[in-house]
Amino acid sequence: MGVILQGVDIQLEVELDTKKEAEILYGALKPEIKSSNSSRTTSWVKIKDKTVTLEVQARDSTSLRASVNSYLRWINLSCQLLKLN
User: Which residues make Cβ contacts (< 8 Å) with residue 51, sequence separation at least 6?
Assistant: First the structure.
């Protein structure tokens, strides 16, 4: 007997050193989220103090994994660039 998923979701929180860094990361993710929502995934980004929260909902685990991997690459790149300043 197989398991049928009705949808999967994940919430990721990234705490930065400063509120300014969180605002920069939020600003970097916002356009990506607007352009990447599809019929298989929907994403949101929120900011509170020094924490950026990313939520992803997907129809299936494959779509969720692909979206999360993309967002993690963007987050990692943004954090690396912040370290250069």
Answer: 13, 14, 15, 16, 22
| Number of other CB atoms surrounding residue 51 within 10 Å | 15
Averaged pLDDT, 28-48: 89
> What type of residue is 74?
W
For the chain, strand residue ranges (E) read 8-15, 41-48, 51-58
Q: Give CATH superfamily name and number for 8-84.
A: Alpha-D-phosphohexomutase, C-terminal domain (3.30.310.50)
The two tokens of residue 28 are: 């970097």
pTM of the complete model: 0.84
